[in-house]
Design brief:
The longest helix is centred in the C-terminal third of the chain and has 15 residues. The protein has a single domain, classed as UDP-N-acetylmuramoyl-L-alanine:D-glutamate ligase (3-Layer(aba) Sandwich), CATH 3.40.1190.20. The chain contains ten helices and 13 strands. The protein is globular. It is of the alpha/beta class. About 30% of the residues lie in helices and about 25% in strands.
């Protein structure tokens, strides 16, 4: 897997949160009760928000360190081998555990690119003892936390902020302990499913985050425009419409690409959001979370235009 962009290994991203073993299947339709379905294609890889973001950051040319729980069950080798192949350095907080790591079963419907996921997530490791290693943060340009293994994410965010390292929250859904985490992050990019208690809509969410001192936030909404607030200005970032093959991991890839672009001084929040959305959209043209890397045209080409998308894919639909 060659990096085709103009990489900068001086950029070091630290990613803290979930990694899983992903079994992804491309199917014509989801099976009904007591039915079986044959997959047109399959992918087995490491997955999870923090892991996929770390892979994207590394692929684009940065130096990724992932702090997560893998353990030494044989299934953990799937995660370790894939991360090694993707040049992501692993810090395993479950290295003494024999339990199987979290496993996700994912079905992608061929015609729509929509995915259905069943996963154990962080519940696979009910009790973990860990400590934050200050060496994780040496030279870090940015920190991403995803809220899985919440006490670890909170401790990492506090440590990063004490060192003036920008902290981004990948907000997939509201989780117990999220109030403490939000108090220690600088930026939030979340899905439309992210709803703090009492927030009925996206405007409420932006007001909630603003009250917490977060002035840069965005909400990804699939094929719809990304809504953002930045330094008191609200707006929308359009998503280029393409014919989707697979949306799996697109949000994770968006977060990793955002981190890569944003930790370069010449790029601001909105520039980084646009770059990340383009990378995530491109990833949706291919099955799984890795195939897009094999044909990636480079960051300059992506920023000019998503190459031949309308001609090659024939029409509408999704992104981040």
């Amino acid at each position: 897997m060659a990096v085709k962009s103009m990489g900068n290994l001086d950029l070091r991203g630290l990613f803290v949160g979930l990694s899983t073993v992903d079994f992804a299947y491309l199917v014509e339709a989801l099976p009904g009760r007591n039915e079986k379905a044959s997959a047109r294609s399959q992918q087995i890889s490491a997955g999870g928000p923090a892991a996929n973001a770390a892979v994207a950051f590394s692929f684009l040319g940065g130096n990724s360190v992932l702090v997560t729980a893998v353990g030494h069950h044989p299934l953990g080798d799937v995660i370790r081998n894939d991360l090694n192949h993707c040049a992501v350095s692993l810090r395993d907080i479950a290295s003494e555990h024999k339990e199987a790591p979290p496993v996700s079963s994912i079905f992608i419907t061929r015609k729509s690119g929509e995915r259905t996921v069943v996963s154990a997530n962080a519940n696979a490791f009910p009790t973990l003892e860990w400590r934050v290693d200050p060496k994780w943060f040496d030279g870090a340009s940015t920190l991403l936390v995803d809220g899985h293994y919440m006490p670890l994410c909170v401790a990492a965010a506090k440590q990063a902020r004490s060192r003036a390292i920008p902290v981004l929250l990948d907000g997939g859904s509201w989780k117990a302990g999220m109030h403490d985490l939000i108090a220690n992050v600088d930026m939030v990019i979340c899905s439309s499913d992210f709803r703090p208690p009492g927030c009925r809509n996206e405007s409420d969410l932006f007001e909630f985050l603003s009250a917490k001192g977060i002035t840069s936030a965005a909400i990804t909404r699939g094929a719809e425009a990304i809504r953002y607030t930045h330094n008191g200005v609200n707006g929308e970032l359009p998503i280029q419409r393409v014919r989707v093959v697979d949306t799996l991991g697109a949000g994770d890839i968006l977060h990793g690409a955002f981190c890569y672009w944003a930790c370069q001084p010449e790029h601001g929040f909105l520039d980084s959001l646009e770059f990340a959305a383009r990378i995530a959209t491109f990833s949706c043209l291919y099955f799984g979370t890795r195939a897009w890397m094999e044909v990636f045209p480079g960051t300059q080409a992506i920023m000019r235009e998503l190459p031949d998308m309308h001609e090659r894919t024939g029409g509408p639909a999704v992104a981040s």
